[in-house]
Amino acid sequence: MADKKVSGLPVSTGVTSDDLFMIVNNPSGVPTSQKITVADLFDGVPSATAFDGTVAARANVAVSGNIMNISANATFTGDMRVTPSTPATSNTITESVGVGKIWFDDNYLYVATNATTIKRVVLDEF
User: Fold this and answer.
1) What is the pTM of this model?
2) Largest CA distance in the chain
């Protein structure tokens, strides 16, 4: 196998977390060949990574953090679930809120319409 070119290797039709990539560490200095698992490679992607173009997430995807911004056109298919919560205060004059923030609880749907206003609507069963 030492004499094979990468282009001559068979094509993989599925990648699992324990599969290995070969990497060259420090290619512009003293290069060394090393290995990394798929899981370790993706665990090392910075959380503030920006992707241009189309990003597709399939199967079960969990997004966590304080804020998730989606701009432009977004399409969600299937169930989109939001964890219930209630605004910390109804006195937004003294506490600025993010415009467009949405909360809900058993009785109301709350929407921040500007930095100092939260409006709510009653939720009825149907």
Assistant:
1) 0.44
2) 72
> Could you report the per-residue pLDDT of 1-16, keeping only the tens digit for each?
567 787 888 888 888 8
3-state SS, the chain, equals CCCCCHHHCCCCCCCCCCCEEEEEECCCCCCEEEEEEHHHHHHCCCCCCCCCCCCCCCCCCCCCCCCCCCCCCCCCCCCCCCCCECCCCCCCCCCCCCCCCEEECCCEEEEEEECCEEEEEECCCC
Cβ–Cβ under 8 Å, residues 56 and 75:
no
Q: What's the half-sphere exposure (Cβ side, CA atoms, 13 Å) at 118? A: 21
Among 114, 85, 109, smallest CA distance to 98 is for 114
